[in-house]
Amino acid sequence: MTRPAAASGHSHPIRSDDVRHGIAHELGVAIVSGRLMPGTALLSEERYSTENGVSRGAYREALRILAAKGLIQNRLKSTTLVNERSKWSMLDLDVLGWMFEEGPSRAFVDSIFELRSIVEPSAAGLAAMRRTERELARMGHALEEMERYGLRDSRGRAADQTFHLAILTATRNEPLMTLSTSIAAAVEWTTRFARDDHKSDRDPMPDHHAVFAALAAGDAGSARRAMGMLIDNALFDASITA
Questions:
Q1: In degrees, to the nearest 5, what angle opens at C-alpha 136 toward C-alphas 171 and 202?
Q2: In sequence order, what are the residues at sequence separation of 6 or more whose Cβ sits closer than 8 angstroms to the Cβ of residue 65?
């Protein structure tokens, strides 16, 4: 990893945060993609610094970021090894992003949809009973934005995230709400995967409107079923070969 050259005529110092996060991103993607396999020893601070032209401190901080996400561990004599997948924080926002950045395995995509199928239908049922009118209005506005921009546009995907996040928030279940950011990120990445990588053209709006109608009616059973159907159809979209 080399430092980017400054733009001609202007010298802007590279922030240490940018450097360490750049290193963490580079190594994180290499780990989750399998280019750095579990058990692989990472370069020492001295060697990495020399070979890549960055400070030892930046590399050290990057390794701390990766360790906090469960991707690596320190062993005796300062050796840093890549962890087994079972120790990775799979729902960490960066780790999720890195997994999809390199093209996730079919098994990983299926596992994300399994997680959504376990969590989101039950959340929709709770939200139908507990949501406020203000939260319902927020969901409705998100659907309008999705209609306006579509799911191939980042603004449409952001609105989709807002819709699902609002449902999780409306459950009033604090432990469940701690998963909300990760679930919303999973929604965004699986949607991008289906729309961009697998070129799905199916209109997802009827499924979302069915969920919204059940939430508006306060019908928990219908909300659970509608959300389950939404996720099943989204999985089908992600299964279409380009």
A1: 95
A2: 20, 21, 24
Query: 16-87 and 104-240 share one CATH topology?
Result: no
Shortest CA distance to 80 belongs to which of 33, 23, 19, 4? 23
Please, how many CA atoms are within 13 Å of residue 234, restricted to the half-sphere of its CB?
Answer: 29
Nearest residue to 168 via CA among 157, 189, 156, 184? 184
What's this model's pTM, rounded to 2 decimal places? 0.81
Tell me the CATH number for domain 104-240. Answer: 1.20.120.530
**Please, is 160 exposed, middle or buried when counting C-beta atoms within 10 Å of its C-beta (0-12, 13-18, 19+)?**
buried
Per-residue pLDDT tens digits of the chain, which is 242 residues long: 444 333 333 334 445 678 999 999 999 999 999 999 999 999 999 999 999 999 999 999 999 999 999 999 987 667 899 999 999 999 999 999 999 888 888 899 999 999 999 999 999 999 999 999 999 999 999 999 999 999 889 899 999 999 999 999 999 999 999 888 899 888 888 888 877 655 667 899 999 999 999 999 999 999 999 999 999 999 988 885 44
Q: How is residue 8 written in tokens?
A: 């001609």
Contacts of 171 (CB under 8 A, 6+ apart): 123, 126, 127, 130, 177
41: helix, coil or strand? strand
Write down the domain spans for the chain: 16-87, 104-240
Domain at 16-87, CATH from 3.40.50.300, 3.40.50.720, 1.10.260.40, 1.10.10.10 = 1.10.10.10
Residue 132 carries which DSSP code? -
